Amino acid sequence: MAEQDRIDEAKARYKAEREKRLREDAQGQYSQLTDEYEEFDHDPWVEPGFTREPMVETTQVVVVGAGFAGMLIAKGLLEQGITDFRIIDKAGDFGGTWYWNRYPGCMCDVESLIYLPLLEETGYTPTMKYAPASEIFEQCQRIGRRFDLYPHALFQTEIDTAAWDEDASRWTITTSRGDQLSAKFFITAGGILHKAKLPAIEGINDFAGRAFHTARWDYGYTGGSPTEPMDHLKDKRVGIIGTGATAIQVVPQLARSAKEVYVFQRTPSPVGERANAPIDPGWVEAQPPGWQRERMVNFTEAVTGDKPAVNLVGDGATRLLWEDTQQAAATPEEQAELERLDFEVMQGLRDRVDEIVDDPETAEKLKPWYGKHCKRLCYHDEYLQSFNRPNVHLVDTNGLGVRRVTAAGPVVDGREYELDLLVYASGFEVTTGLVSRLGFDPVGVGGVKLSERWEDGAHTLHGVLTNGFPNLLVCHFIQAGFGLNFHHYLQELTAHLTWIVATAEESGISSIEATVEAEDAWLAQLWEAGKGFGRYSAACTPSFHNSEGARTMAAARNVVHPGNLMRYSEHLERWRDAGDLPGVTITR
After folding, report:
1. Do both 286 and 268 map to the same domain?
2. Among 368, 398, 424, where does a domain finish?
3. Least packed by Cβ within 10 Å: which of 207, 251, 480, 588?
4. One domain, residues 546 and 519
C-alpha cells in the first residue's frame, strides 16, 4: 500500500474512533468531588483531628497553592525583598500534585534534571533520569526548608471566601480554619493536577468493595508503600478505570501484586520507550552555573520544533516531538509533510504494541488511533508488557467508557466484573473553569463573582490579569503559555507574577487590573496564533486537551498560547520592558 493511502486510511480510522467517543455532556461526564463523593477526597497522608487557632492578619500577598508554582512564587517574592506573605493549601505539606500522588509506580515522565525545581539552588542531584514521586516530594520539602517557607504556610486549610474591598484596595480572605486575612495581592496558584475528578458513572457509590482515586491511594488496604510491594493484594481482584499517564504506571505494579487485574479502557494511550537509568552525580557536579535552565530551554525547543543544534536531553519526547507541533503549515506541501511525520510517529507507536503484546486481539485494542498531539504521549517499559501476564485482562469498552457500576463491580457489554478493589485513574480537572479548580469563587469590583465574569470562558491579559478583579494574579495555563516541561513554564510565569508585585510596591501602585480592550486584543492574538492547532485539535479524539470535544464559547476562550513556550515568555518580557504597563488600569 502506498504511504499516502496508509495515511488516508489512518485518518478515516481516526475519525471513526473519535466519533465513538464524542458525548454531548463533554466535561459533564466527570463528577466534581463534592460531599457526595467525600470518601474519595479525604487526605490519607495526615493524621485526623488537626486543629489550630484562627489567624487574623494583614499581609502583602496571599498565595493559594503550595506546589511548584506556589514555591517558585514564594522564592521570587523573597528575591524581590518581599517577606510578608502567606501560602495556603489544602494539603499537609509542600508538593502540590506530588503531595497527593503517591500511588505505586508514580514518577515524572519528563527528565528529572529539568523537571525537579531549583536543583542548583538546593544542591540536589536526582537519582534517576525519571525520578520516583517520593523523591520529587522530598525535593519540594527540601525547597521549603532551604528557603524557610514553612513559617509562611497554612496547611490543611482551604479558602472559603475571597472578596475585593474597594475602600481598602485589598483582598479579604476567610478560610476553613476561621482565618481572616487581608492581602494587597491575591495569587491563585492552584495547579492543574491537584483536583481529582471521577467519571460520572451510574451507581458509582453502590460498589460494595473498596474504591479510591489514584491520588488518594490507600496503602492500608493494598499493603506496601510507594517503594514496597502491595502484599495485601495477592488474593484480590482489582479493577482500574483509566488508561492514561497515571494508569500506565499503576498497572504494572498491580500486575505484580494482585490475583487478577482488569484494565477498563475507553481510549488507549500511545506508549513509547522510557529507558530509565541512574544519573551520575559527577556529571551534575561538573556542569557550569545555569546548566539547568539551559537544559530546560533546550528541551522546550526540541519538543516544539525549533530544533536546537544539540539535543541535550535525548529522550523519547524530544525524538518523537522534534518536528513542528502546531500543524500551522503555510502551504499545502508543508501541511502534507507535517501530516506524514505525524502519521509516522503514531504508526511507530502502534507497531511497538505489536512487537510487545503477544495476543493479537489485545494488541489491536491497545493501539492509539489519533494524531500525536491529541493526547499526552506516554513512556513506559512495563505497561504494554503487563498484558502478557495471565492475570492481567484488558476490558475494552469500544470508546464508550464504563457507564454503570453495581455492588459487585463495573458492567461492560452486559457483563458484570466482580471485584474486591476498584481504582479510579480518571485524572484531574485541567481545563474546567478556574472557580471549579480553586473550590471558591472570588468576588471582585461591585460584588461581581469571577464565575459570572468568566461565564463564557476566561477573560484575561496574558492569562494573568483580569478586568474587575484588581490585584488578582492567576497562575495557570489558560490564555497563557504551556510546556511539556511544566516546571519550565512555571519558572517563566512566576518570575512575571513576582515582578508585577514588586513593581507595584516600588511604584506606589495600590491596584492593577486589565482593561477589557486589552483582554479582547489578547484573545484575538491567541486565536490568530493558534488557528492551525485549533483545526488540528478539533479533529482529535476527546480528552482534556480539547475540553473533551466541547464546542462552546468557554472552550474556545480557554485556549493556550500555541507553540514554543519561549514565544509566550517573550510577550511577557516585552510587556515588562514597555515601561508603562500597557493594557492595564492602575490606581495609586
Report:
1. no
2. 424
3. 588
4. yes
- Residues 294, 442 share a domain: no
How many domains is the chain built from?
A: 3
**CA–CA separation, 225 and 142 (whole Å):** 21
- Residue 397 has which C-alpha cell? 469498552
Q: What sign does the dihedral 205-208-213-218 (CA atoms) show?
A: positive
Same domain, 375 and 435: no
Among 424, 459, 489, the domain-final residue is 424
Cα angle for residues 28, 242, 248 (degrees, 5° grid): 145
Could you give the CA distance from residue 86 to residue 314 in angstroms, rounded to a whole number?
39
Q: Which domain holds residue 443?
A: 56-195+430-587
229 burial (CB, 10 Å; 0-12 / 13-18 / 19+) is middle
What's the start-to-end Cα distance of the chain, in Å?
70
SS3 558: coil
Q: What CATH number is given to the structural domain containing 445?
A: 3.50.50.60
Q: Supply the pTM of this predicted model.
A: 0.92
Q: Is 178 domain-assigned?
A: yes
Q: Is 548 contained in some domain? A: yes
CA distances from 488 to 116, 173, 533 (A): 10, 30, 22
What are 476's three cell numbers?
A: 495557570
Do 117 and 223 reside in the same domain of the chain?
no
Residue 302 lies in a domain: yes
Return the percent helix, strand and coil in the chain, to nearest 5.
40, 15, 45
Compute CA 404 distance to the chain's CA centroid, rounded to the nearest angstrom: 27
For every residue of 363-426, DSSP letters joined together read HHHT---S-TTSS--EE-SSHHHHTTSTTEEEEE-TTS---EE-SS-EEETTEE---SEEEE--
pLDDT at position 2, please?
A: 79
Whether residues 460 and 407 fall in one domain: no
Alpha carbon distance 472, 248 (integer Å): 38
% of the chain exceeding 70 in pLDDT: 90
Whether the pLDDT of residue 39 is over 80: the answer is no
Instruction: Measure the CA–CA gap between 313 and 547, rounded to whole angstroms.
Output: 30
Considering the domain architecture, whether residues 173 and 93 belong to the same structural domain is answered as yes
Q: Which residues contact 484 (CB under 8 A, 6 or more apart)?
A: 110, 299, 300, 303, 317, 321
User: What number of other Cβ atoms are within 10 A of residue 34's Cβ?
Assistant: 9
Give the C-alpha distances (Å, rounded to integers) separating 101 from 21, 60, 91, 104, 427: 27, 31, 11, 9, 11
Here the cell at position 150 is 514553612
* Inside any domain, residue 301: yes
pLDDT in tens, 230-281: 999 999 999 999 999 999 999 999 999 999 999 999 999 999 999 999 999 9
